[in-house]
């Protein structure tokens, strides 16, 4: 029987694959194990994984493609650490608890960073709740968030964050 060629194929499936990946993401988020990028913001730094950030954000994906460093430092000017921390937690876990006071600001930052699952969907939902019509550029075409390389290992977003807060201020005035 040795040397016989078989046309049979077998489909192998790991039944709880997604559950295991979800648990793994939670574990590596909590421990920063194998982190390969540092996010630096106004009042702190956070270690993360390029793969996770890229999968959850076309913005980060483009930064890492344009700057193929082993361990880049992405500088997010003007964005508070508390917001970056919540957004990264959302990317790893798929959910996050946010105080009502911080929700609008967080959603705008999510839109600036093009975070899937939060970006424009969240803004639209908030606008509907407050009966406000928000205008914003098409998905992925935000000119204020263009990444520029500062050094071979550091990336700066050159983000004009106060300008990104315009809609937040408008929402606050209406509510």
UniProtKB/TrEMBL annotation:
GO terms for cellular component: nucleus. Keywords: Nucleus. Pfam families: BTB. Residues 35-100 form the BTB domain. The keyword tRNA processing does not apply. It comes from the Eukaryota. One of its GO terms (biological process) is regulation of transcription by RNA polymerase II. Gene3D superfamilies: Potassium Channel Kv1.1, Chain A. PROSITE patterns: BTB (PS50097). Its main location: nucleus. It is found in: Nucleus. This is BTB domain-containing protein.
